[in-house]
């Protein structure tokens, strides 16, 4: 059984391979975790913050969802032939 953890505890999931940031992906909306460097002196340093929902949705354009059909800008539509 794993020990009890509390908010603020540091958890280590090492050797993640393709599940780390460089080769990771947002499959099913999973946000990328923070990355921490374990230094030679034993201290841990945050080297990449965790992704937030704002990061995930930053490249989506939802404006067309809130426009009426009469005012919809069709210049962004394209065929998937």
UniProtKB/TrEMBL annotation:
<dbReference type="InterPro" id="IPR009006">
    <property type="entry name" value="Ala_racemase/Decarboxylase_C"/>
</dbReference>
<keyword id="KW-0456">Lyase</keyword>
<protein>
    <submittedName>
        <fullName>Diaminopimelate decarboxylase</fullName>
        <ecNumber>4.1.1.20</ecNumber>
    </submittedName>
</protein>
<dbReference type="GO" id="GO:0009089">
    <property type="term" value="P:lysine biosynthetic process via diaminopimelate"/>
</dbReference>
<keyword id="KW-0663">Pyridoxal phosphate</keyword>
<dbReference type="GO" id="GO:0008836">
    <property type="term" value="F:diaminopimelate decarboxylase activity"/>
</dbReference>
């Amino acid at each position: 059984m794993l020990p009890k953890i509390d908010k603020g505890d540091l958890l280590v999931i090492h050797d993640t391979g393709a599940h780390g940031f460089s080769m990771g992906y947002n499959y099913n909306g999973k946000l990328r975790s923070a990355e921490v460097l374990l230094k030679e002196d034993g201290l841990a340093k945050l080297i990449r913050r965790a992704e937030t929902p704002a990061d995930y949705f930053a490249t989506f354009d939802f404006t067309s969802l809130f426009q009426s059909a009469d005012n919809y800008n069709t210049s962004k539509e394209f065929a998937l032939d």
